[in-house]
Amino acid sequence: MLNYLPFLIPIVLLVLASFFVVKQQTVAIVELFGKFVRTNGPGLNMKIPVLEKVAGRVSLRIQQLDVIVETKTKDDVFVQLKISVQFQILREKVYDAFYKLQNPHDQITAYIFDVVRAEVPKMILDDVFEKKDDIALAIQRELKEAMLDYGYDIVKALVTDIDPDAQVKQAMNRINASEREKVAAQFEGDAQRILIVERAKAEAESKRLQGQGIADQRREIARGLEESVEVLNKVGINSQEASALIVVTQHYDTLQSIGQETNSNLILLPNSPQAGSQMLNDMVASFTASNQIGEAMKKQQSKKKE
């Protein structure tokens, strides 16, 4: 047995070399003397030792490539766009994917740059933000048509970030802040206008009520004077004498009201000495008439008692 051991070891090694394992979602490329012969799927597979070899393995999983593209918009603003492209190799086109492209990532990146720099310069900066989905669809459409011949399927293209120049962002923030301040000022102005209108309405209503109160007060005073004259007429005092009595009474009431206030002064400024004398004479006459009326009222009351 030991004599055959040198021959058994190479045979065992050859048998072991004929087996190879392929992982899930992966395809192995098998070549014979450098020529493609077949593909092997996941699991345990066999090949001819020495003659055949596994040239490579291709993943069928969905992959993602992130590309940052710098370009200029229609309004001459430089902006950086981050494009994320999700792609996978088609099972039936593994041969094309493995042999036709040396570096598929570079190829996809080149197409992304071409599409973005063809679409974005047609838009102003605001439209780039608003129409980023249109840019993504254009990238996906162009890539899908171009990469299908190479065995690649473009699953999705996304514009994940739009980054303008720092000075442009500061300017946009200032514009936004100015617009907000403008709107705030408009709201404050509207509020002040409403407040002024409401104050004017309240003041007008107050004046109306105040005038109504004064009118009611004067009406009641007039009614009271009328009743006073009627009462005095009933005791034999004529209207002229009753009016004089009421004037004197109001005069005394006024003086009493002034006297109730501390540090109050009453100044009577006649237009002329004659006017002052006349006013003094009128007051004396009023006092005399008042005394006469009082005496008359006493006599009337005495007669009633008798």
Describe the 3D structure.
The protein has 306 residues and is of the alpha+beta class. It is built from 8 helices and 8 strands, in the order H-E-E-E-E-E-E-E-H-H-H-H-E-H-H-H. 11% of the residues are buried. The protein folds into 4 domains: 17-59, no CATH class; 63-164, Band 7 domain (Tetrahydropterin Synthase, Chain A), CATH 3.30.479; 166-206; 218-258 and 275-306, no CATH class. Strand 6 (63-72) and strand 7 (78-89) form a beta hairpin. The protein is rod-shaped and about 175 Å long. The mean pLDDT is 79. Helix 6 packs across helix 7. It has a 3-stranded antiparallel beta sheet. Strands 6-7-8 form a 3-stranded antiparallel beta sheet. It has a two-stranded antiparallel ribbon with strand order 1-4. Helix content is 59%, strand content 21%. It is found in: Membrane. It holds the Pfam family Band_7. This is SPFH domain-containing protein. Its main location: membrane. It is a single-pass membrane protein.
